[in-house]
Amino acid sequence: MVSNKAGSAAATISPVKRRKKEGMWKQVFKRLMKDRAAMIGLIGVAVIILISICAPILTSYSPEEMDLTRLNSGPSWEHPMGTDALGRDYMSRLFYGGRYSLVLGISSSFLSVLIGIIIGSIAGYFGNWVDNIIMRLCDIIQAIPGVMISIIISLALGTGYWVTIAALAIGGCSHGIRMTRAQVLSVRKSEYLDAARTVNCGSIRIMFKHILPNTMSPMLLDFTMRIANMIQFSAGLSVIGLGVQAPTPEWGAMLSAGRNVIRTYPHLVMFPGLFIFAISFFINLFGDGLRDALDPKLKK
Amino acid sequence: MSSTDLLLSVRDLTVEYSSGGDVIYAVNGVSFDLERGKSLGLVGETGAGKTTVAKAILRVLPMPPATIKGGTVLLDGEDILKKPEDKMLDVRGQKISMIFQDPMTALNPTMTVGEQIAEVVRLHSDATKQEAKQKAMQMLKRVGIMPDRYDNYPYQFSGGMKQRVVIAMALVFKPDLLLADEPTTALDVTIQAQILEMIRSFKEKFNSSMILITHDLGIVAENCDTVAVIYAGQIVEFGSREDLFDRPSHPYTVGLFRSLPSYAVGEARLHPIEGAPPDPRNIPSGCVFHPRCPRATDSCGSGEIPNRELTPGHFCRCLYPEV
Predict the structure, then answer these.
(1) Which residues of chain B have a CB within 8 Å of the CB of A16?
(2) pTM, 2 dp
(3) Which residues of chain A have a pLDDT value below 70?
């Protein structure tokens, strides 16, 4: 009887219990799930993304459809957020505009971090004169404010959606370069790189398998936190007539188009402003949580 | 091949580091031989150049700042230092492999332990992913870790288990020469014994030679056939374990043994060697040890100190060796 019991207990605890692969990202995700503020941020961002994707379902007007009988009308039942100077439904323009703003924010932030990772890791890994040249170029770029660089690039390449993305990305890349370089330098002295060298691991493999994965978390954080910045920057560019141009329903461009009539038709500024505020707020909320999840020691 | 043929022969190995205009003389003309299947203990203080010797043999010193100024490292009669870089594949990780001091940092935290062993397999053979994984699991089993922990990350392992993984990585290709750089310094005493026992049994199984770098004379006594005492980048005394432990001749070696704590009754204080190791930027002329040596005379301060053979196989770089 007793032995029988022991036998069944042994059978239920399987001897080859395969241990789960629990990597850093999974852990980070777990911690993130527990962080209420971060979850609110994530849900907020998700809602805004959903609104932009589902814009055709949520609105009954096309963003280009003009109603010349209702120019600059305030919020009403037909147009919950009013109409703009050409009588276009403002809500549908804002919902469609989310697509442009989000893609602009995400892609320019991504591009900027990507440039930072590539150039920064070259500088950090090869060191010496390569590092010196890259860092001095970075000094030059950093001596000029990032917005200024973006303005100069916009002036040189002209305006337009993709040009704006490139301008924003290049204007902000020097920070990413420095950050990646510092990360690579701190990882470069690690013993596991020595270990990799003793088994004849090549430079490129060491770079991609052993160095970069260990420098990723601050870069991921930088990418996230930057998205909101980029959207704000692009609004700034629109104000001075650069950046995304008027017919494109981009939040920044809409905000700047409305600024001349802010006293008479405040809704033209208020609503895009609210959207930009909301996306920045939620992304930063999420970003703060992400930072704590990536490095729990930082959390107070 | 007989079990006593020469595997490694290092001659006049000289390594310097340059640092902010200064030249650091890390290794100054180190020579030794190592037979197949034997182990050599490389004993010395921190900064004496032990690890630099090991890394120079594998040619993985960071260059710059390091430069190998001269010397030869013959492995099976072939000079490793003259081999083109792209021919080093069969040396690094295959003929020679290295075990590191600190298992906490010797594994990449973002790769699973299994992947790290499999990576070694894949780098040195054209095994498929599956074959490499099989091999890695087999290696894990050999070092006493359940193969189902293949997918674990280093943080899920204790220090001793990590060192086992490092050993598994080093032993995949049954190396002729194992460089063990203080393999147990970071581990507690019980685990030390296990790890050393494991290294020893693999070494015997594969008939590998080993260079054991340590500052623990007890470990040397248990594991090494020959011992080289290194001071300021020079081997000051070289001989069999019996020679060194029973008849230490160089005043530095004598001082090392004297400074071991003694448990004799009435022994109140330790007996350290007076002074501090020399600044490697500014190595003393003549005998490198003479500023600290109790037996030094004027003639020790200049000229080349001959490396005298006291008894066959027992070398001592001293004018007045203790007999």
Answers:
(1) 148
(2) 0.73
(3) 1-24, 246, 296-300
pLDDT tens digit sequence for B104-129: 888 888 888 888 888 888 888 877 88
Instruction: For chain A, list the domains and their CATH numbers.
Output: 46-62+83-298 (1.10.3720.10)
Q: What sign does the dihedral B240-B241-B246-B252 (CA atoms) show?
A: positive
Length of chain B: 323
Angle, to 10 degrees, between the axis of helix A161-188 and the axis of helix A90-126?
30
For every residue of A123-176, DSSP letters joined together read: HHHH-HHHHHHHHHHHHHHHHS-HHHHHHHHHHHH--SHHHHHHHHHHHHHHHH
Nearest CA in chain B to A217: B110
Q: Say if the Cβ atoms of B151 and A20 lie within 8 Å.
A: yes
Please give the average per-residue pLDDT across B5-29, as a whole number.
Answer: 83
Task: Write the DSSP symbol of residue B65.
Answer: T
Classified as helix, coil or strand, B253 is helix
Residue in this structure with the two tokens 């909301």, named with its chain if needed: A278
Rounded-to-integer distance, Cα A108 and Cα A243, Å: 13
Strand, coil or helix: B121:
helix
Question: Rounded CA gap, B133 and A16, in Å?
Answer: 17
Task: Name the CA radius of gyration of chain A, rounded.
Answer: 25
Chain A CA closest to residue B55? A198
pLDDT digits (tens, 9 = 90+) for A142-198: 888 877 888 888 888 877 788 888 888 888 888 888 888 988 888 887 888 888 888
Confidence of residue B1 (pLDDT cuts 50, 70, 90): very low
The one-letter amino acid at A218 = P
Cβ separation of A213 and B110 shorter than 8 Å?
yes
